[in-house]
Amino acid sequence: MPFGVDWNDHLIARFTALHKGDERSFQMIADTLNHEFGLRLTKNACIGKARRLGLAVRARVAPPLPRKGQRRDKPRRIPAVLPGWRIEPPALPPAAGKITIYQLKDGVCHFPHGEAPPYIYCGATARRGSWCPHHERVVYPRGPR
Predict the structure, then answer these.
(1) What sign results for the dihedral spanned by CA atoms 114, 120, 123, 126?
(2) pTM score
């Protein structure tokens, strides 16, 4: 068959025998069947076949819970701005105007300013494409395309 695997009776019998034991994962079952039958099965193909055959659902292996008195390591939160640091807004080119998204059109710079919507845009005259010469150097630091 060009797509999939021909699940004959012998292959299904071996699959169900491997599935009965709880010590093998679906990846290990797929590797065993691939070696024995010369196939190219994946873990997900074995999971799907087990569901279609109505075989028992295997228990997921969850990470162990911490013992009493132990605590889980929680990720530490890092503040967005560290104390003593100041974020400078990007410098606008001298000819830049502030326009909204509704005022954007061809021939003006589409470079956005601001951290979150609603954005304001540069609005300076674009030499080519969507950027003014100043923002073209910002977007393409190694030169124009």
Answers:
(1) positive
(2) 0.41
